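Record copied across here:
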Amino acid sequence: MAAEFEQFHSHSGPKPWPVVGNFGGFLVPSAIRKRFGSKAEGPAKNAASVLTELAKVYGNVYSIYVGSQLVVVLNGYKVVRDALSNHPDVFSDRPDIPAISIMTKRKGIVFAPYGPLWQKHRRFCLSTLRNFGLGRLGLEPCIVEGLTNIKTELLRLEEESGGAGVDPAPVISNAVSNVICSLVLGHRFNHDDQEFRSMLRLMDRGLEICVNSPAVLINVFPLLYHLPFGVFRELRQVERDITAFLKRFIANHQETLDPNNPRDLTDMYLKEISARREAGDVDSGFTEDYLFYIIGDLFIAGTDTTANSVLWVILYMASYPDIQDKVQAEIDGVVGPLRTPSLSDKGKLPFTEAAIMEVQRLTTVVPLAIPHMTSETIEFMGYTIPKGTVVLPNLWSVHRDPTEWDDPDSFDPTRFLDEDGTLLRKECFIPFGIGRRVCMGEQLAKMELFLTVTNLLQTFHFRLPEGAPRPPPRAGAFWPDAGALPLHCVYKPSMMSQRQNQR
């Protein structure tokens, strides 16, 4: 591979360090860098923004090494679109990344290799989720039910905080996860269900271990996964606990399945397994084991990205009170105080939508798309990229592309509005990705994001703690230092009056 790629690498990309490659510093967890006085912490020092800066030196297509693995980085909207939309048969595969492959066995939807089996499962999941309301108004009551719990819980936490403020992350994450649970597992958990809360904490912890602990070194030295101590042992335990939780639900579905009355995606998948086996299609790839990984993909992907998008919007509204006031004035004018916002209001709230989209653009919760891999050798942008090369689309660079966005680092919702205040749909706005690997839950995420943000801003005014600085956007950061930066959820006057009248 190195010999094949020598011409590419010698002309484009920084020189790698031995063993650790170009991103050795990012393979060292932040806690360790802090311990030894590293100054590499901060909003500008993360992989996505560094890769964007490198594009200014080496061009929008260049190569780096992560450990000994050669990676081609794609930057800017035109390059990313050309690769993923115009050459999808070549750029839609997934590489074998040790930390991911160990835990997913390369099954499911998100991390599975591109091919007939992946295509069959993606089509099945999309069709099934649509049947259960994905992207349609039928799912709205399920989302709204969770919003009632969010508002009640935030108010309770604010009142109990004694003026210290609230970390909204657990409350938001709980509600978002419950929507996925309804679609996939046919079950809603109470917001105070301890098993459910424990599972959400486990998923958060597993993600934290994978991205910000010595466990990231598994991608360079895979045998580290099996070490019997520290975060390596903890990661295996988290994996076992999540597996046990999900497999209990699958077993319960197998025992209670009524083929004539499927309740959710799990029932539909089990029904599909039976139908294919009865038809003699024993090698279809539809198995109980594969179902487990699909549920895991949908559960985790359908919670973290949406919940963090909501949290970023709340943080930006608290950081830019003038924008928050304008959004709330639009919601009050269209919806009023006597009913809650609904999806039917979406077209009547262009500034609100523009503000949400601008936060998504600036924060890009998945700044580096999940790595792709070329399935065949291709001539691309003047370079020969061999089959089996890892390709990293930099979505952060797309949303910071100065050829597509004026003053791309500024927060300006009006960039998504025309002179008449009508919402603009920009092709270069791709928070859910692009091409055949575009996020399967895009429509659900948009519904949840709009309904959650509008309902919360109709009810509350959010503000930062006294004297707290305005946090900058951080590529790939999850809810930024939530415990250290609580927000105040203040009932708006009109809603306070309504609440008092209801007593």
